[in-house]
Amino acid sequence: MKKHNFSAGPCVLPQSVLQQASQAVLNFNNLDLSLIEISHRSTDFVAVMEKARSLALELLGLQNKGYQALFLQGGASTQFLAVAYNLLEKKAAYLNTGTWSNKAIKEAKLFGELIEVASSKDHNFNYIPKNYSIPEKVDYFHCTSNNTIFGTQIKEFPSTNNVLVCDMSSDIFSRQLDFSKFDLIYAGAQKNMGPAGTTLVVVKEEILGKVSRDIPSMLDYRVHIGKDSMFNTPAVFPVYVSMLTLQWLKDMGGIPEIEKVNNKKAEILYNEIDRNPLFEGFVSNKEDRSAMNATFNLTNNTLQKTFDNLWKEAGINGLNGHRSVGGYRASMYNALPLESVQVLVDVMQELEKKA
Amino acid sequence: MKKHNFSAGPCVLPQSVLQQASQAVLNFNNLDLSLIEISHRSTDFVAVMEKARSLALELLGLQNKGYQALFLQGGASTQFLAVAYNLLEKKAAYLNTGTWSNKAIKEAKLFGELIEVASSKDHNFNYIPKNYSIPEKVDYFHCTSNNTIFGTQIKEFPSTNNVLVCDMSSDIFSRQLDFSKFDLIYAGAQKNMGPAGTTLVVVKEEILGKVSRDIPSMLDYRVHIGKDSMFNTPAVFPVYVSMLTLQWLKDMGGIPEIEKVNNKKAEILYNEIDRNPLFEGFVSNKEDRSAMNATFNLTNNTLQKTFDNLWKEAGINGLNGHRSVGGYRASMYNALPLESVQVLVDVMQELEKKA
Question: What residues of B are in contact with residue A34 (Cβ under 8 Å)?
């Protein structure tokens, strides 16, 4: 029996995608060769890469708008550095909403002056700062759209005339946004897009080429664009599985349709957290709650063992909170079925009856 | 019917490894979860990473000798840059044996003065330079052990008191060497080790921490060592398949045993290239011929179509030479069965009978 997988990432993927991926490892496209044994320059794999790139732009509504999609290696952690290498000439502004913003700031500091426009560190990042001002004429403004660890999510992005850069690792393809407001979006694949090992970078070409420093080839977006995301051997399997997952999303109606499901899942779970006296949410402002990662605690910690046994018996996986927050975290990425959330809510209600 | 896969990389992998990998994508370790859906911090995946790291050191004979093994993202192309970032304070010496050495030199030049101790560019890299001298007191000496594109391989490594760095992407784990002579070895997985998407770095810890520049976290070997190769989410599937492939190699007797098979394969093919009047080898000095990649041409180009049809009919894949050399290239990595080489030799003899 398949588990109800609430893992924060790497995380649940569509079952049909897993089946196709498993088959491709044995025999890809009836070539009598494994996907992972063929040249990345072969017609069959080039088609995979091109389809992945084009699906990413199509789903975000960014086709023919001056954007390029790249599937690179190194995770969002490498993008913390690459963004600064490519865009930071003098100073940049960052919004600090948690661990990942913090890491992005730390890496970018090596390349120029950073202005932290606001931070929610004062309350262990349990809210999204608002009403901050972004200095005019910085090289770019950087934010993190969703904070996996703390369970917060930016609902309204600031208006700015600066270049807008966003780490969307944990909520890309989950909700409708005007993605054309962003100049650079990056996202590790291992939440809504595929397995760990590839990172999507969507960049508006016109913002590139403006810094004076030399950029090493592997960190230079223009080098990767010039080689159609194949400057060096890409992570073949992760890119293939990402392509399958993006196709799965397109087939079900794209972002507008998955957003409805995601909102429904979040509504069911947060309603139970608010209703059930045994639980409390971690995030202080309800409007900042993430639809991807719900963080919550028991109001009575003596029930911990009972609750842990209950959800494990129900076939639930990956519900422990991150060590820096504690408690529980239910990650409800695109591929998590609605019924898994219902199973979790049932367990929460069962605990209430037992307590 | 499975193809005879002479692809230069990504390339043939052991069939038993592909079967295990395919199964793990559906259900890993009987967890009722896919390998690519579980947390990289889970006990099951941490065990995979630790086993991969320890197998790499064990097979190279480098356990308990001050070395660390890391599985990083970004390919050897990222190591061109990371090596310089971590080791190049003033100047380094490079041996130029082809495309990959060239690229390594290009990236390192951003970080200090480079001395090219010798180059075989004068004859399109069809030999390995010898009798060059390495300046004393450079930060390190860098060489490429095997040149996939040109089909040359270093058989005798120079003696040097400098730090010795080697890109072994295309022949690591294929032959016995005193690996303890090297201070840093790196290798993209997609030849003898696994699928594209992970890169092995084996580094002697004592050489690190000696440059004065700030190193971004993702490029800092000490950061990755400090986090047991899990500073950020690793490329889960490529690391897993690499671990399986290293285990396969250990089970068959390790490098001493695979070297015998590799030498036999190379001997059979090169003997035919030398014997058959329709073929000639690309590499000028026979002692420089690679046991991994045999590059050769037809002596009569009008036979090209006939030959191409013959090998394709025999179920051979990936025999076309790289565009910068032309002709043919038979890559005979660890997982290529001896019988595949025999099939190729049969085809070459069939062409001779027809011509």
Answer: 13, 18
